[in-house]
Write a structure and sequence with these properties.
The complex is a heterodimer of chains A (114) and B (224).
Chain A (H helix, E strand, L loop, with lengths): L2 H19 L4 H10 L7 H14 L2 E6 L7 E6 L1 H30 L6
Antiparallel strand pairs in A: 1-2
Helix pairs in contact in A: 1-4
Chain B lengths: L2 H13 L4 H15 L8 H19 L4 H5 L3 H11 L5 H26 L1 E3 L2 E5 H25 L7 H27 L5 E5 L2 H26 L1
Antiparallel strand pairs in B: 1-2, 2-3
Helix pairs in contact in B: 1-3, 2-3, 2-5, 6-7, 7-8
The chains are: A mainly alpha (114), B mainly alpha (224).
Chain lengths: 114, 224
């Protein structure tokens, strides 16, 4: 299975988790994702997701002075976003447990006899 | 300067720092995003575009170009952004639409009044032109924007297909001019004579109002 398909489902939660730590702008967020192994992510995936999360009320943005150059758009988590992140965390823990169990069973199971 | 105007000015300034290929990528993206909504405010879209452009400049410092940063399918990204963008409330839509239509009507009527025929009895106004010209202009602008939007990412290989948007745009423009000339110059429909001295009063008032508006807008721009 392609990695991008797997990532798509969890990217939203990961973006919320990174923004929960500190207010970030797009470039910062992309760098944070890449440093955590999401090396295939491009702006074409990230920017529509940020617009969607802001529209849904999980993120809020504000323009703040930037140390270098013009003001920048910073994203932060809203109370609703915190709630969404908590739900994602619970769902992910459960899903991960289920998948781990299936994989453990499959990998430890004896090879079927021909 | 208002925020939308400031964003647009900053976008234009920052684009100068890009390579020709990256500038074309951003130019196309800007045209595609801005022509998606013809009669409504593009302020939120330009704010988003500015944020993306600033990120691209950071990425340039890491050695990445626009295609590497945003991906090789800018149209899909733009469509997805447009799809996810919050739709403006109907009041805001109505306000933007009314403002745009009022501007077109104002410009049309201003030029029609100035070009109306002066007779010994007064100013001869072609009422059909006063209704028809703004409608034709709105249609031409709407069609031109739609055409620009649809052809921004068109992959044309033949010479004809590559230049088709320009040809169509020229045709639409000519059609619009022809329609305006027919409605404003032909003596069809109802005409109304605005008697002297009211014609002079009206024209002088319009010129005074237009000059005042221009001066006020310059003053606002200068002080913000």
């Amino acid at each position: 299975m392609k990695q991008t398909q797997l990532i798509k489902g969890v990217l939203e939660g990961c973006v919320l988790a990174i923004i929960a730590q500190k207010e970030v702008y797009g470039y910062d967020l992309m760098q944070a994702l890449k440093h955590r192994g999401f090396t295939t992510i491009v702006g074409g995936t990230l920017y529509p997701l940020l617009v969607k999360l802001e529209r849904n009320g999980d993120l809020a943005s504000r323009t703040k002075p930037s140390p270098a150059g013009p003001n920048r758009k910073y994203y932060r988590l809203t109370p609703q976003g915190t709630q969404t992140l908590t739900e994602f965390s619970q769902q992910w823990t459960q899903l991960k447990g289920n998948v781990d169990q299936i994989l453990t069973e499959a990998l430890t199971h004896d090879e079927p006899q021909p | 300067m208002t925020n939308p105007n400031r964003d647009l000015t900053t976008i234009n300034q920052l684009k100068r720092q890009l390579s020709p290929a990256d500038r074309k990528y951003i130019d196309d993206l800007q045209v595609y995003l801005n022509t998606a909504t013809v009669f409504y405010s593009n302020a939120p879209i330009n704010a988003q575009l500015l944020a993306m452009l600033q990120d691209l400049l950071n990425a340039n410092q890491d050695g990445l170009n626009a295609a590497e940063w945003f991906g090789h399918d800018p149209q899909s990204m733009a469509d997805e952004i447009l799809r996810q963008f919050p739709q403006p409330q109907w009041r805001a839509k109505l306000r933007d639409l009314a403002g745009f239509v009022a501007l077109i009507i104002g410009i049309s009527w201003f030029s029609l009044l100035l070009s109306s025929q002066k007779t010994p009895q007064g100013l001869q106004l072609n009422l059909l032109a006063f209704v028809g010209v703004p409608i034709v202009e709105l249609i031409v602008i709407g069609v031109a924007f739609k055409l620009l939007h649809r052809t921004t990412y068109q992959n044309a290989h033949s010479f004809f297909h590559r230049h088709l948007p320009v040809i169509l745009m020229g045709l639409i423009f000519l059609l619009g001019v022809a329609a305006i000339l027919v409605t404003s110059l032909s003596p069809i429909g109802v005409t109304y004579i605005l008697p002297t001295p009211w014609d002079t009063v009206l024209l002088t008032s319009i010129i005074l109002v237009a000059t005042s508006c221009f001066a006020v807008s310059l003053y606002w721009r200068y002080h913000s």
